[in-house]
Each structure stands twice: as structure tokens, then as C-alpha cells.
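Lab notebook page, bench 4
Experiment: in silico fold of construct C2
Operator: M.H.
Input chain length: 267 residues
Purpose: comparison with the prior construct
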Amino acid sequence: MWIDSHCHLDAAEYDGACKVIAEEARAAEVSWIVIPAVERANFKTVADLAAQLPGCVYALGIHPLYVPHAVEEDLSVLRECVVHALTDKKFIAIGEIGLDFFVPSLCEPAIRAKQEYFYAEQLKIARDFDLPVILHVRRSQDMILKYLRRISVASGIAHAFNGSVQQAEIFGRLGFALGFGGAMTFTRALQIRRLASSLPDELIVLETDSPDISPSWLHPVRNTPAQLPQIAAVLAELRGQSLAHLARQTTDNVARVLPRLGSLLMQ
């Protein structure tokens, strides 16, 4: 069994073919797909998708790329939606939230400050409801960690991780796993491949970030969760491990850091 711990199944790139994409993933033995929200406008969309499609679960949050256009009320709506979603077994986390210091327009002082504010406020929502978080961490590892030390949350995933070994260890001590996907399939991605090959077993989970971060054999075509087993095969080769071991370990890791999904795995 494989788990795609990060997939934007509602993305416009799929042109309404969500059901087909999910069915293809299940045929490829991807048993579970985590669908994070990115803005207030798609909170209901991801919840509805998870309700309609077997093996799909969802998270609610405001992505840093959407923060420039977000308003204060969106945070209140998020909190209200979380209150209602707690009774939904397919609701598993706050996400996708975080910081992006790669896109130049997001690094302008006012927007950067707004990013940090929305990130901190969403961490507080996760803390208040004892929920894990799914983090967007792009050139922002140290600041992400700074806020996690201030606002303690239960656990989570640092998605598309590309930091240092030292930063990875700190995330691990804070109860996080690290997401690896299509980027590590490129031989030129030396840092990610070093991390993927050397980090402890308990820190690693698999993801596609579909439709983005397509693996080397698919790039530049859109990514899909059905690619996860082949991505896993690359990781298994890098780590010198069997696919069976990697499937068990990454599944256990997801269950640990996303316990509401872990409960579903035991049913």
C-alpha cells in the first residue's frame, strides 16, 4: 500500500477528471490520497472530493501563494470550517500552510509580513484543535521552524523538503516527517537525493504534489498520484531498500504524523 501524502486533486489542470485520476491511482496501489486546500474558495471543494472518492482525505488551510489576496475573515472562516469538519473522519489536518520566500513578489516586506501572520494564525488553529499541519516550506526552513518553536503543534509533514540535514533533524524532533516526491527522480537534484538516501527511515513520507513536481520520466507533463509507486522505486534504490520495506515504513510514518488518517488505516 502506498499513500500520496500531498496531491492537489482539485487542480484545474485535471479538467474535471478527478475521479479518473483517483481511480488510476488506486489501480497503481496508491490506497490513500491527501488533498490539501489552498484557499477559502476551495475548502468545500476538497471536502466534497474526499467524500465522493474512496481513499481520499483532506486538509484545510490557506497556502502562502494565496495569502496576498486573502483577508482576515478567511482565518475566521477557516476556524469555523475546522469546527464543523472535526466530525468528518476524512478531515485530517490543517494545510497547506507555510511560507514561500522563493517567489520574488512574496518577499516584498509587506507580503512577507502577511505570510508570517497567516502562517502563525493557522498554526494557532492547529494547536487549538490538536491537529497536525501540512507545511509549504520553500526557502523558508529556518523561519518555519522559528514559528513551530513558538506555537507548538501536534505533528505534521514538511512537504517537498529541500533543507539541510540539521534542519531535517529539528523537524523530526518536533514530530514532523518530510515529504519526498518527483524532484528526487532528477539526477541533477543532488541535495534532495542526498537527503532522500541518508535520512532516518522514520522521517520520510512520499508525495507527488500533483499536478506539480512531475518526475523525470513525465516532466513537463502534469503529474498524477499514479506515479507514486515509480517515484517510490527511485527512493528505494537511493536508500538500498526493498519496495516492501519502504511501503510499510512510509505508511507507518504517515499514520504517526497524521493520526486521523492513521485511524482510518486501522479500520
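Observations: Residues 155 and 175 are 5 Å apart (CA to CA). The two ends are 14 Å apart (CA to CA).
Next step: discuss at group meeting.
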